[in-house]
Amino acid sequence: MIDRRPSLRDRLRGARRRIRGLVRRGASEREMARELAFHIEMETEHNIRRGMDPESARRTARIAFGGIDRASEDVRDVRNFGWLEDLSQDLRHAARAFRRTPGYTAAAVLALTLGVGANTAVFSVVHGILLAPLPYDDPDRLVRIWESNSAQRIKRANVSPGTLAELRSRSRALDGIALFSERDFLLSNGSETWESRAAAVSPELFDVLRVRPLVGRTFPLESADSSSRIPFDEVVISHRLWQQHFGGARDIVGRTMLMDARWTHTIVGVMPSGFSYPTGVDLWVPLVYSRTVTAAERQYRYYGALARVRPGLTLDHAARDAAGVAAQLASEFPASNAGWTVEMARLDRSIVGDTRSVLIVLLGLATCVLLIACGNVATLGVARANARRHEVAVRVALGAGTRRLFRQWTAEGLLLAALGGAGGVVVGYWSTRLVLAIAPADTPRLADITFGRPVLLFAVVVTVVTGVLIGLAPALWSRDTAPSDALRTRSPDGGSALTRAWLVGAQVALTFVLTVAATLLLRSFERLRATDLGFRHHDVLSADVRVPAGRFPGKRGWLDRVLYYDRLMAELARMPGVRSVAGTTIIPLTGELGSGSMWRTDAPGAHGRQPPTSAADQWKAAIQLVTPSYFETLGMPVLRGRAFDDNDRFTHELTDLELPRSPGIAVINEAMARRFWPDVDPLGRTIVVFDDLSFASYRTIVGVMSDVRAEAVGAPASPTVYLPFAQHPGRGLSLVLRTDVPPEQLAGAVADHLRAFDAAMNVSSVRPLAEIVGGALSRPRFTLLLVGSFAAMALVIAGVGIFGVVGFLVTRRTHEIGIRMALGARPETVLWLVLREGLRPVLLGVVVGSVGAVTVAFGMRALLYGLAPLDGVSFAAAAMVLLVASLVAAVRPARRAVGVDPLRSLRSE
Amino acid sequence: MAREQTDLLRGTLDLLILKTLAGAPMHGWALSQSIQQQSENLLRVGQGSLYPALQRLEQQGWIESEWHTTEQNRPAKYYTLTTSGRRALSAETRNWREYVRAVDLILGSA
């Protein structure tokens, strides 16, 4: 009816006045008191003029006025930003109320501490890994480049130098391409020797990432153009390496490091703190590669590649452009490029990889913990509101407005949340440090996880939202309190009971989601651990050794190297406690297997080193070089044919690396047999194996071994070809020793023995194989640990909620229970009555929660191993755990009901 | 229902205050007396709602207050209508008339 919207100017003026009122609060309070007193004075005089005596005149005036306090309160309500004005008063009141109920306060603060703590910790990780931009200039335009071949089932493989050279010259969308390849080096600064991961990089890498060295320089760009000027004796080191191994020396530039006990490199620069690309690398050496593209360099794909998209172009544009170049290459160079495409992805996405999905699941589950905590505190709050109904009614009768009461509840909520938030930040800080300490080493961007300002801001926002949420429930619930309620001794509390049941049901629903997630991960982890790896990892010790460089020069070097390792292994086998010794190019589960392409000699078009015409006939398989006793030492059974023996040696004409005169042999695994000879017996067939070292050799298959999970515990074996080490020896060898005693007891003796054998030999990673297998499970174990602790927190918080609700139920129905007992109800009946009512919201919660649990289960499908997301056992087990926990929480207060003395309960009425 | 009544009364009170102050600046007590007398004692302003209303109108910028001395030389807070208050008064008076006419039409035809 009456439109009384004030204009903006009026409003501004009003706001100014309000702020002035707030600032001069004391003054305006006095002014208001004076004005109201003046009113009563005038009224009194008026009454006297009408003939009343002064005393009754004053009294009448006061009655007519209707309570100075009420009027003052109403004026204050209008005058100020009420909640700010009275905040300190409300907070003081809230603090008093909390001191009166320390148990409630402690439970609420604890729940909030856990909730905020879990969220803050997870957020600090999510922020560091997913949200914080990469510490490079304009990181959105950085891309990783791969080559893929769908026909050969190769996804995102490294890139060949040929493809990179063509991309560099043909693509208009890229502003620079850098190559890199990683490997570990044994380093020495003269006084100590250690192992670090290094990257051989093309000089453009620093340019593409736009990072400058902190000290000195990186590699000169001109070196990219002519191989003769590549400064391959230079090295750039990381800030960490500088600090740890050179004590941050100022005169670091110009110092030298011995690499792999062979090459002396001069340090030319130190990168700024935190820079480590590729992730985990501590030094950079120039990548030595030919700029003239030969056929072989189109064939071998072994470089990681990184590029910057030209400004103004989108990633899609660049990706289409690169795909176009790949299509041209496929038609121009079918032998090396047919079937191959070029793929691109944002650098940050490619660094984070599948950690992303884990983090999103974790963030969602941590939010569940916080919601449960909110629900819990709100439940307790409603109970308090109910207990304080009398107090509230009195305040309403004394003139407290709805807004005032609302403010009071909000203040209490905010105070609780602030306490919980403060605790949560502390818990979050330590949890983050704990997470960093136990996170799997291969987690990307660990260095970017900090407990900084964004995390604190997040904690503050979460705390404030939580405070408002938990204040809202009791405020809404006590909104309709009437002054007359103050007069009733027993309050009608049906509404409160219902609200609390709902809140508990919601908590249980969320807890069920968490419990299901944890159970799924637990069962999946158990399956992973129980997975038959296909090899024996108990009672096996492993070590990596490397022949000193330059030890076996010349044409006989190869033969001498084999003999050297023969002697070494024979000596180790004589050690007490050692049952057998074997060598391999790679210990299972320590990294990617080497791979190469191969084809059947009778494939169409294949002739000598000439590969078959159809790309489908060129297979990609893992290649592992092993000594004869390898299979036996690791307990790998021969399925068909035979393993290697000591006669499978030196089949090559040693000085001619082109083709062996007599066919070499190979043993393949079951996966290889299934993939490439699905219908026929592979034994006796001959293949050409073409591996990364540019060797092509004829291999006759003499045996089929059982599959081994060598790459990841959760991944089935990929097709693998085993070759005798003696027919293809490298410089390094990994040893596996089967022991009669616990392997860790032998570690020291074996290391000593190796050094005694040859002081110049590089020995590293002497450790039990079981430790390696354990390390391979560190990621699922880590996820399980986090989600498990979330679930445990949720169970505790929800348990407290159920405890409270059942206790409240018993208190409310004490009278009724007394009557029932007096009428002869048995204790079991009473117990059942209370439990049934108390646990009803739990059942409801489980039912509602299973909808959420199904969603989450599908969301974390990538984290599950050998388990369908809808794993019935997990769901049932989670429900059982939840029901038992609820029962435990409910039984104590329920037993109080049985202890009710009928007489006393009736008398108390 | 209870809520709507309050709003109605409050809106009416604001209108009466504005109208009364349009004549001359007044302090709160005089205002309540004036409204009571002008309405031939039919309307009594609950003093508990008078001061909050004055506060509210002042915040909207429709009235201003100032401390002056009364004829008996006592300090009192005097309220004056502002220009925007005058504009609001005429707008609200028009609204009120329409409202009354509408209600009358219904009551008259019943």
Overall pLDDT metric of chain B: 79
In total, how many beta strands of chain B? 3
| Structural Rg of chain A | 38 Å
Interface with most residues: A-B, 35 and 33 residues
> CATH H-level name of chain B... which superfamily?
Winged helix-like DNA-binding domain superfamily/Winged helix DNA-binding domain
Fraction of residues in H or I helices of chain B? 55-70%
Determine the structural class of chain A based on helices, strands and strand pairing: alpha+beta
Number of helices of chain A: 29
Largest sheet of chain A: 6 strands, mixed, barrel
Count up the domains of chain A. Answer: 4
Which consecutive residue ranges of chain A, at least 5 long each, have pLDDT under 50?
653-662
Span between termini of chain A: 52 Å
The proportion of strand residues of chain A reads 15-25%
Shape of chain B: globular
| Unreliable stretches of chain B | 1-8
CATH topology value of chain B: Arc Repressor Mutant, subunit A
